[in-house]
Amino acid sequence: MSKENYESCLEDLNDIPNEEVREPAIPVDIYVQEAADLAVWVEDEKEAMKKAGMDWKLAVRLPELAGTLRYAQSLWMKEFNTQEEARRKWELKSPEAFELKNDLEADCRFAFRKRPDLLAKVQQVEDGTSHADMVQDLSDLAALGNANLSLLQAIGVSVEKLQMAEASASEMSKFLAQMNGESATNNEAKIIRDKAYTLLKRAVDEVRDTGKYVFRKNPEKLKGFTSAYYRKLNRSRTEKSTEDIISD
Asked: Which of 94, 125, 130, 145 is the most buried (most CB within 10 A)?
């Protein structure tokens, strides 16, 4: 159902200007549940809320918008977890890849020591120290080595070592692309997630603000229009402050 909600709200999400997008202030799963709870809480208050000027369509849409955010969050977490897994694999395998690159550079410098033209190419490969440079260096060294294989074999470098460099370059390039394809702040999945939160927040804020006004003299109903998360958070802070005073 959340996917259907998401697809039905895509046009609304895309209409939100980037400058109006808000990031979740509380955990998304908690906010989604609070929105769903609010939808139930407000069911019997239609006439009072409408009388106060609230567009009842906002209350009706709460489950749909909550489902949209739930699905958008899942898409973002899938993307985020892919990046984190790629980062973990990069950190695990990059030391070996860097060592292979450094070894091949040393091999080539020695094997090509009487060939200034080839040494110049090795020097070009050695320029740069970024992750991307390392990946490109492995690929370039493998290509340079294969093109001058006899010189490398003369000093005991095997074809398998060059093949290892090619395979490592391919593997590390994949990890790097997954890890750095889009930054966390500019990732499209995250932007859509934040837009889904913004869309839901607009509705939640309007319903809550109206409810707080309408039921300002009714404590039992009023509590349903406040965030349980923040009530608990504030209660914990108050208790901690009291403990600090007592301990002083």
From this structure: 145
